[in-house]
Amino acid sequence: MANLGTNDKPFLLAGIYTVIAVLAAGTGIVAWRSQRLALGLTSLLGLIGLAAAVADRTTLVSPVAKVLPAVVALIVSVGLLWWFTRGWDVPASDVAATGSAGSRHLATDLAMAEAPDGVRDQQPGEHRGAPARLPPRTETADSPAPAGFDRRAFLAAALVSGAVAATGYGTNTIFGNLGARSRDSVTLPSAADAAPSLQAAAQLDVRGLTPYLTSNQDFYRVDTALSVPQVDAGAWTLKIHGLVDKEIELSFQDLLDMPLIERRITLACVSNEIGGHYAGNATWLGVKTSELFKQLGVSADADAIKSTSVDGMTIGTPLEALTDERDSMIAIGMNGEPLPLAHGFPARIVVPGLYGYVSATKWVTDIEVTRFADFAAYWTSRGFAEQAPIKTFSRIDVPKSFAQLDAGKNAVAGVAWAQNTGITTVEVRIDEGDWKPARIADEDSINTWRQWVYEWDADAGSHNLEVRATDAGDTTQTSRRVPPRPDGATGWHNVAVSVA
After folding, report:
1. Mean pLDDT over all residues of the chain?
2. Fewest CB atoms less than 10 Å from the CB: which of 135, 168, 257, 325?
3. Which helix (H) or strand (E) holds 241?
4. CA R_g for the chain
5. What does 257-278 look like in DSSP terms, one character per residue?
6. How confident is the model at residue 396 (pLDDT cuts 50, 70, 90)?
7. Is there a contact between 378 and 452 (Cβ–Cβ < 8 Å)?
8. Longest CA–CA separation in the chain, Å
9. How many angstroms separate the Cα of 81 from the Cα of each of 30, 88, 164, 398?
10. Each residue of 142-152: pLDDT tens digit?
11. Which residues pair with 430 in a beta bridge?
12. CA–CA separation, 430 vs 355, rounded Å?
């Protein structure tokens, strides 16, 4: 993540495809020497693919529909390889004697040269005196192709495999678009408790400043799903169980029929380095979890929920964060639309004030009310903290590091956030001088970031700009820089610029 950022998944997929291509090429080379070994390798790769299809939980279709493409691919690949290489096997003695893949033809030529004149030109099944015919061969002895290679058979095999691949691609497209088709069919109801109108004073007009509301296309994505899960909302369910008086299983329609709340909430990822952009502010629509849990009767012994995604990803969240009045929700809408596939369609958890790795379960399908002592979630088992409130954070959006500026008035601007607490002050300093207060846009809510700007009268030369924020709890960002692991980075963001 530190090296590749959000390009980690494309990089991994490219590596997988490269390995598959190398294995396929290697199997083809092996087939020149041993059909059985090549068939064995192909069968093994096909079985691995079949096992992956069986284990896949990112596409909610019937088990038969899920494994059928893998089964067809296994049968077709093994069958085509057998058909194409059925005449390729070369006796080891011939290879040793001639060192050529065309040794069969060479041995036949030598035998015919030593035969009597009358026999030399006679073919099996022919009488003496019949017209002479040369023995059929597809390649000469010095050909790089294996003995028995037939270009027509190769072309036929290529056409058949291409047709199968095209059919497989079409089938994959059908299943791959399952989530998109389901999402397109969803019409969101109006919120019973809508967000207040966004005031103009909550937004600053500064060129290059991060927009107050982040579009769905620009909203950051950090998760462990190699491919975006394809979920049919009509088949999706959410089971809530564990330390509760009443276990329930909700359909997507059940969520649509419940009273919905609409809130603007800023989310942030624990992997943000100082000045990082893994944060976004959106308008969310969903079922308020505090109201939902009141109906279930939660045990006094419980202190956590373990939520699970359709792909098996697990997250542990403090129960208090879902039962207090901070407007946590099971979200089904984002910026006036059904959740995008990449952001959790059909439903996800949104919790103000907590980093995503302990709260923001996408494609959620199971919620267990439990105790932290009884389980280890995905990221906490990998060295991250069990509980992780978002730390007060600020960054400079403009100017960018190493920018070339003109002397005189220049805007220094950015965003700051302290979800569930609120930002009260943002300060800027130049070249380690005195801290100067920045102008902050009006507060929309304590759960959203605030834009800020400082008008800087810049002198010529090289300069270092720093920012820090203070929240409503009188906590000011510390200058001490620590990395994101285990519970979020700290430190002042700074940029270096040149003024001419």
Report:
1. 85
2. 325
3. strand 237-242
4. 33
5. HS--EEEEEEEE-TTPPTT---
6. very high
7. no
8. 112
9. 12, 11, 14, 59
10. 556 555 566 67
11. 465
12. 31
